[in-house]
Design a protein that fits this description.
With 268 residues, the chain is of the alpha+beta class. The chain folds into two domains: 116 residues, Immunoglobulin-like, CATH 2.60.40.10; 100 residues, Immunoglobulin-like (Sandwich). Helices cover 17% and strands 46% of the residues. It is built from two helices and 18 strands. It has a six-stranded mixed β-sheet, with no helix packed on it. Strands 13-12-16-17-18 form a five-stranded antiparallel β-sheet. Strands 10-11-15-14 form a four-stranded antiparallel β-sheet, with no helix packed on it. Strand 14 and strand 15 form a beta hairpin. The longest helix is centred in the first third of the chain and has 25 residues. It is rod-shaped. The chain starts with a helix and ends with a helix. About 15% of the residues have low confidence. This is Ig-like domain-containing protein. InterPro entries: Ig-like_dom, Ig-like_dom_sf, Ig-like_fold, Ig_sub.
Length: 268
């Protein structure tokens, strides 16, 4: 009987403890409902990172909202109600501190309004909300991608009846992929080289193909898989004497030049 009584007392204490912990969690003070961080944004486009939380009015003492970037131990943003928001670290000078996420005095400056995001702001963002009695945090990742400054597709004559197709792009982030195509087929023998410069990537793809017997459509495809971004450039090249080939625009320029010369000679 004593053993049974002891078990009853033991489980009764555990049950009461579980109820107490549950009640404390229910009135814990703060809970982040939704962390809105875009997965992908583009260089220079203003973006808002919002941290929507619920706060018990009776337990709002000591409210502090902090944002952290990656694994840095110091916050990049801090706000205490009735005080001016602070931009710190990598976000210094890059926020609109007048931005209001709500009309509630306890959450008006909870969000980050980044005016001009750059690739260096790609990473994990953690919103940390705390009071004297409770705290909560959530983390999401954002990618700031940078499209190419220009995408070039050109041809070069390397002799021995061999032609070289070259595609290049500059100033891309994150590290891109590139492929060359003839018609609907990818050139598997193409060589791709990527070079990092000032935090951005330059990429170049080259392929050697036999001299042309007729017009061929060549294309170059640049891809940034993380951003679901693809851009393509196409050109039609024609065979020419001397085992060289030109794009249709180059052929048109040559024809116009010949017509101009004939017109001048006729006037003479």
């Amino acid at each position: 009987m004593k053993s049974v009584h002891g078990l009853v007392v033991k489980y009764s204490v555990m049950f009461r403890l579980m109820i107490t912990i549950g009640l404390l969690e229910c009135i814990g003070g703060v809970r982040i409902n939704r962390l809105q961080v875009p997965e992908v944004t583009q260089l220079g486009d203003p973006v808002v990172l919002d941290c929507d939380y619920t706060l018990e009015e009776s337990l709002d003492d000591g409210l502090v909202v902090k944002w952290f970037f990656n694994e840095t131990p110091t916050p990049i943003y801090q706000w205490i109600p009735n005080k001016k928001p602070q931009e710190l670290g990598i976000l210094k000078g890059r926020l609109d501190l007048e931005y209001s996420a709500s009309t509630d005095t306890n959450s008006v400056h909870r969000a980050l309004h980044i005016i001009q995001p750059g690739p260096d702001l790609s990473g994990d963002y953690t919103c940390f909300v705390s009071t004297f009695s409770s705290e909560d945090r959530k983390t999401k990742r954002m990618l700031v991608f940078v499209p190419e400054k220009r995408l070039e597709l050109r041809q070069e004559h390397v002799g021995d009846g061999t032609l070289q197709v070259v595609c290049s792009a500059e100033g891309v982030f994150p590290k891109p992929n590139m492929s060359l195509h003839v018609g609907n087929s990818e050139v598997n023998s193409s060589k791709v080289a990527v070079q990092e410069r000032a935090g951005l990537f330059d990429i170049r793809a080259t392929a050697e193909v036999p001299s042309l017997n007729g017009p061929e459509e060549f294309s170059c495809e640049l891809r940034i898989p993380q951003a679901n971004y693809t851009v393509r450039k196409e050109a039609i090249y024609y065979p020419a004497s001397g085992n060289t080939f030109h794009s249709s625009s180059a052929v048109l320029e040559s024809v116009l030049l010949i017509l101009n010369v004939l017109f001048v000679l006729r006037k003479c």
